[in-house]
Write a structure and sequence with these properties.
By secondary structure, the chain is of the alpha/beta class. The protein folds into two domains: 207 residues, Glycogen Phosphorylase B (Rossmann fold); 145 residues, Rossmann fold. It contains 13 helices and 13 strands. The strands form two sheets. The chain has a seven-stranded parallel beta sheet, sandwiched between helices. The protein is globular. The termini are close together. 42% of the residues are buried.
């Protein structure tokens, strides 16, 4: 390793797939800003739906990119992902930095190279949420899921042993890395871009949600609670299997605004009464984005939100994942006061600059340790 450090360090970035824009892609963007010359390896790349900052970069895909439906139905190709990742030749790189919530941790590196995996989560539908997905699957899927997932689960555990160092995006994820992979990890919280200027203590007359419309996000709870209370709710976001269902259950006080720009997001976060966060997230950047705009967060009391929201200071928790519990939380919230400045101060502890500094320091320290030779 010493010889490679004396020369120009060769770095590769690895990401599960680039077909949408979310928190994991914001983390990848930070990695790219730390290592701007590093190519990005990914399962499939959909330029039309990927973040605009990826346009023009050196993005290298697996062979699944060329399969019919590969860019749009990749999640149905789970059994093919291990071989696709193992087929990538990364032997020219001294450092491989992966951003993983699926199978990309399974890339194979040189014996003397360093693989740092920033783990957003062990594969949720393979490990802790497997039985939830199984119950919600069709009869046909339930027939082959146990055998298929068993094989993927064994491979995923073995792939995790190839990683040299795990970094978790929260202590909540770190505990699951220890449980399912039997590996230690260090938590480095992801960061957000902080808006410029002071925040206003004046709030609007609406509650706000920003999310993809997938089941575990539990946006249905937010809609049902606001329907019940007659409170105005603005729902931003698009995509996901539950969009039609959620739109159908929305009452007259619920407004869907679709995918919003960064400027629109800042405006919504700067004026909402509170941001509603009813799901269980591994970390969750959106509560921080809301707090950065001075907006308190009403969150279900489990997962990464417990590490970002300060109960009674920058928001409140409800402890049953139900519309009734959230509705009671909203009513209690409306009888209390929260400081926009306190919310902003909390968010400032999670900046992208701090995140990039910590990731770079972690990788430098890992590279400085002795590694196996060829």
């Amino acid at each position: 390793m010493a010889g490679s450090l004396r020369n120009k360090l060769k770095v590769a970035l690895v990401h599960d797939w680039l077909v949408s824009e979310g928190g994991a892609e914001q983390v990848l963007k930070c990695f790219h800003e730390v290592y701007p010359d590093a190519p990005i390896y990914t399962l499939v790349y959909n330029r039309e739906k990927a973040p605009a900052w990826t346009h023009g970069l050196d993005i290298r895909t697996t062979h699944i990119q060329n399969w019919p439906g590969g860019k749009t139905h990749h999640k149905f190709l789970l059994t093919f992902m291990p071989k696709a990742w193992e087929a990538l030749d990364l032997t020219e790189y001294d450092l491989v930095l992966s951003s993983c919530a699926s199978c990309c941790k399974g890339v194979i590196t040189r014996p003397d190279a360093v693989h740092v995996c920033y783990c957003h989560s062990p594969i949720r539908y393979v490990w802790d949420l497997y039985y939830d997905y199984l119950r919600g699957a069709s009869r046909l899927k339930r027939a082959f899921m146990p055998s298929m997932i068993h094989k993927v689960r064994m491979w995923d555990f073995q792939a995790a042993q190839r990683v040299d160092y795990f970094v978790s995006n929260s202590d909540y994820v770190g505990k699951r890395i220890g449980k399912f992979y039997r590996r230690e990890s260090q938590t480095i919280y992801p960061g957000i871009n902080l808006p410029e200027g002071p925040v206003s203590e004046e709030r609007g007359d609406y509650y706000f949600v920003l999310s993809r419309f997938v089941g575990y996000k539990r946006i249905d709870i937010a809609i049902e609670a606001c329907n019940k209370l007659g409170r105005k709710l603005i729902v931003a976001g698009s995509g996901g299997e539950e969009e039609a269902k959620l739109r159908a259950m929305a009452g007259p006080m619920v407004e869907f605004v679709g995918r919003v720009s960064d400027e629109q997001l800042l405006d919504y976060c700067a004026h909402a009464k509170a941001f509603l966060f009813p799901g269980v997230e591994d970390f969750g950047l959106t509560p921080l984005e809301a707090m950065a705009g001075g907006t308190p967060v009403l969150a279900y009391g489990e997962g990464g939100a417990l590490e970002t929201v300060v109960d009674g200071e920058t928001g409140m928790f409800f402890h049953e994942q139900s519309a009734d519990s959230l509705a009671r939380c909203i009513q209690e919230f409306e009888g209390r006061s929260f400081s926009a400045a306190a919310c902003r101060a909390r968010a400032e502890q999670f900046s992208t600059d701090a995140f990039k500094t910590r990731i770079k320091a972690f990788c430098d320290n890992a590279l400085a340790k002795p590694r196996g030779g060829r």
